[in-house]
Structures are given as C-alpha cells and as structure tokens.
Amino acid sequence: MDIKRIKQILSSSADIEVHYNGASVWIDQLNEDGQTATVHLRGPLEERTTVEISELKEV
Fold first, then answer.
1. What letter does residue 53 receive in the DSSP assignment?
2. What's 49's domain CATH number?
3. Residue 11 structural domain
4. 13, 24, 26, 28 — which has fewest CB within 10 A?
C-alpha cells in the first residue's frame, strides 16, 4: 500500500478493510518516517504494532 492511500483511509469515515500478514487490522497512524504505520488487530485486543506500509494490503 502507498502513503497516499493510507492517508485516504485514515481520513475516511468508511470501514475499509486492511490486512497485515493475513490478519484484519485498523490503521492507527502513519508514522513520521513515511515508511511505517502503527496498526492494531480488529477485535478485543488493542496491542499496537509498527509495520512497513508496503506489507499492508487493502481487501
């Protein structure tokens, strides 16, 4: 996924499904380095993880 699309998803009110390693995640923020984003799994666990944006896939 690219920076432009992540910014669109973050500013959208729609529920846009994004996967990381096959798991459905919420994007919390695009990090300042422009290469990573902070995400957490959809569901009751809210453990946040920093991932490479290139590894995020829109479903």
1. G
2. 2.30.30
3. 3-58
4. 13
Long-range contacts of 9-14 (CB under 8 A, 24+ apart): 9/58
Euclidean distance between CA atoms 17 and 7, whole angstroms: 14
Q: Is 9 in contact with 19 (CB distance < 8 Å)?
A: no
Task: Report pTM.
Answer: 0.89
Q: Mind listing the pLDDT tens digit for each residue in 33-54?
A: 999 999 999 988 778 999 999 9
**What sign does the CA torsion over 48, 50, 53, 54 have?**
negative
The first and second tokens of residue 36, run together, are: 């990573």
Q: What is the mean pLDDT of residues 22-42?
A: 95
Domain count, the chain: 1
